[in-house]
């Protein structure tokens, strides 16, 4: 497939990369470094026994497999487009799509895993009555990244379409 001078920036690639990086941040920082939660710690498998910790560690690993696949797919799409002839792209497009993907990850993960399924909450080391506030902060952080990313993409598209 030959691309002409009007080739659009591979937005899907940036969003997939951002979602994968968002997942890695969640898994590495919140699950492993801070140990605030694991995948199923609020779903009846608190990390209070070796058996539950093993299950949560396996689920965390499967979660990382998915985030790794998102990053690999995003890189493949970006590489495919970058190898073809294209016009100059503003860096704001790349940073914006990364933020959009990261923000979308937070929003989907926060709504589905934290609220709908109740699998875990952002900071389960905090008192239980504070969990909702941590979850809402996580959602607000995701919404802010999505909004800033969207603004950067819009601005980056204008910059990309500059006369040559």
Automatic annotation (TrEMBL):
The chain crosses the membrane at residues 61-81, 93-112, 132-153. The keyword Membrane applies. The keyword Membrane applies. It comes from the Bacteria. Keywords: Membrane, Transmembrane, Transmembrane helix. This is DUF2243 domain-containing protein.
């Amino acid at each position: 497939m030959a691309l002409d001078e009007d080739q659009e920036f591979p937005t899907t690639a940036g969003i997939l990369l951002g979602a994968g990086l968002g997942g890695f941040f969640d898994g590495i920082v919140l699950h492993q470094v801070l140990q605030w939660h694991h995948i199923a710690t609020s779903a009846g498998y608190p990390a209070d026994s070796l058996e539950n910790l093993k299950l949560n560690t396996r689920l965390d690993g499967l979660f990382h497999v998915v985030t790794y696949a998102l990053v690999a797919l995003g890189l493949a799409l970006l590489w495919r487009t970058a190898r073809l002839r294209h016009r100059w792209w503003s860096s704001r497009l790349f940073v914006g799509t990364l933020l959009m993907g990261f923000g979308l990850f937070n929003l989907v993960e926060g709504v589905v895993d934290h609220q709908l399924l109740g699998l875990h909450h952002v900071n389960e080391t905090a008192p239980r009555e504070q969990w909702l506030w941590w979850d809402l902060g996580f959602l607000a952080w995701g919404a802010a990244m999505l909004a800033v990313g969207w603004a950067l993409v819009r601005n980056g598209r204008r910059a990309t379409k500059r006369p040559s």
